[in-house]
Every structure is written in C-alpha cells, then in structure tokens.
Amino acid sequence: MAHRKRISVVTKHLAGGQAASSLFNGSVTIITGAGRGIGREAALLFAMNGARLVLNDLDRSVCEAVCEEVRDLGAEAVGVHGDLTKPGVVEALVDAAVRRFSGIDIIVNNAGYTWDGVIHKTTEQQWQAMLEIHCTVPFRLIQEAGKHMRAAAKEEISKTGKAKPRVVLNISSTTGVHGNAGQANYATAKSGIMGLTKTVAKEWGQYNIRCNAIAFGFIKTRLTGDSKSGEAMKVGGKDVKLGIPGHIVGMFEKLVPLGRFGEPEEAAGTILMLASPFCSYVNGHVLEVAGGAFV
Question: GO:BP terms for this protein (predicted)?
C-alpha cells in the first residue's frame, strides 16, 4: 500500500499538480491475471489514476473481490473470470469491454504461472501449457482486441489525421532474457512474448498503438514464494505447485544489488509508467525490472 501511495504522489507531480485520476482519463483497460499479485496491484493503481477496468482471473472469487476494491476507489470495473486458454473466454473478455465501455485503449497481458522441470523430465503437457498461457493467450487477446483498436484508430485518422494513443503491454520475465535452470518451458515462452511484442510494435505503430514488454525479475508473488506454502493451481486436472524452495530465496536475493525481491506495487508502477502518456515515444521495448540483477 505504501508503494502504491508513493506512485500516486509521483504521478500527480508529473501531471503538473493535477489530480492523479486524470492520468488515464477514462481509458478502457483490460488486465488479465488481475486477481492477485502484480495484476491486482496494477488494477488498483490504474483505478486510482482514472482508468475504467475490465479484469480477468481464473478464480471467480478473487476476480469479483478485486472488482469491488476498484469500485471502492471510485472507478468502474467489469469482471470476466475464466481460463483464457479455453474457447470463448478471450472473446468474452473483449466483448465485455466493448459492450460496457464501447472500446479498448490499453491491454495488459499479465496472466501466467510456472510449471518447472529440468529439460529431460519436462512433459509434453508442461511444455504446451507454458506456450499456451504465455504466448498463445496474449496473441489471441491482441488479435481479438485489435479488431476494435485498429478500427477505431483508422476512423480517427480519417477524421482528424491522427489516432489517439493506445497501448499493449506484455508481461515477460528475466528468465526469458537470460534463461533459468529448471524452466526451459517458461524461458521459451517468455522469450517468445518478446518477439510478439516487437512485431506488434512494428505493425501497429502506424495506428498510434504502442506495444512494449516488461521482463520482471524477482517480485514477491505466489510464483516466488516458498513452495512449501501449499500454493497451487489446477491445470488439466493436475495440481501444479507454485513457488520455489525456501532455502533458495536467500540465494536469489544475493543476486539483486538492491538486496531484496521487488514488491507487487513496484511492479505495478512500472506497468503504469509504460502505459502512461509519459512513455508516448517508447515502442517495441523490453524493459528489465529486476532491482539491478543480471546487469
């Protein structure tokens, strides 16, 4: 919460003293994986800065809970829960945005998880699951939402000569940049989303649609918590344990010059920054946010 308040103060200062809620000025923002961790903090931060939100999470209860939190902040929110890898869920998410708010301005492809295994023991299901959630789902959401974003941009260009700014943000990982033992599937998928990011940036820049990616390092989420905590999720009827062995956390922290894992609020602040008008000339970039690790 403290980090979120600081970011709100900074955005107000950058906006020349205007209320922070004017930063996004009603921009319609889709955030996937919005029920917990980075996605939840991004939803709350965008709400504080004037966005109207369409939120997705696999879990109905947490999706509804974060929508309520957003409304408590005085912003509008629509929740569309469901597994984005299943037929019709991506389409339902886009349809909800268009029906409720008549358009889409910002997409944050945040949904994802890890399913680790050394290369020689990684199953076909593990491999395909990572490609599906980290590459195919973002591609399908960009493609589906793009029908509306590009059409609106073309109409604006025909009327005024210029389209208003729109943004696609894809969440990647430093594992996709540098690789990581035990995560061949995750590393491949997170590397792939960076290629998609640069391609969208090149194709859609003409419509004033910017596309960037953020490669997060060690952020405090269920994916970096102690694997003994019991956190898990169902994938194809199987329980996939989340987290890393507790004794390794300390080792990872030593890799970070700042000496700690990042907070979800700090990660959300980076998403806010790249989606905001202050980054209007940043396009096709992959920003590593890792507290100085890997430099």
Answer: fatty acid biosynthetic process
- Check residue 272 and give its pLDDT: 98
Of 113, 186, 207, 281, the catalytic one is 186
C-alpha to C-alpha distance for 43 and 8, rounded to whole angstroms: 13
Distance (Å, whole) CA 173 – CA 215: 4
249: its two tokens:
């956390």
pLDDT number for residue 226: 61
Evaluate whether 255 touches 293 at the Cβ level (below 8 Å): yes
Query: Rounded CA gap, 185 and 124, in Å?
Result: 10
Beta bridge mates, 287 = 214
Q: Is the pTM of this model over 0.85?
A: yes
- Secondary structure (DSSP) of 72-90: HTT--EEE--S-TTSTTHH
Give the number of other CB atoms < 10 A from CB of residue 234.
10
Cβ neighbour number for residue 161 with a 10 Å cutoff: 7
**Which residue from 129, 199, 143, 138 is spatially nearest to 172, judged by alpha carbons?**
138
Separation between Cα atoms, residue 83 and residue 87, nearest integer Å: 9
Percent of the chain that is helix, strand, coil (3-state, to 5): 50, 15, 35
Q: Which residues pair with 215 in a beta bridge?
A: 172, 288
Q: Which domains does the chain have, with CATH numbers?
A: 2-222+262-289 (3.40.50.720)
166-173 and 209-216 as β-strands: parallel, antiparallel, unpaired? Answer: parallel
Q: Could you report the average pLDDT of every consecutive run of 10 residues in the chain (295 residues)?
A: 53 47 91 97 98 97 98 98 97 98 98 96 97 98 98 98 98 97 97 98 98 96 69 74 70 88 97 98 98 92
Closest CA to 116 of 232, 211, 206: 232
Question: What CA–CA distance (Å, rounded) separates 142 from 94?
Answer: 10
Q: Is 281 a catalytic residue?
A: no
In this structure, what DSSP letter does residue 164 have? P
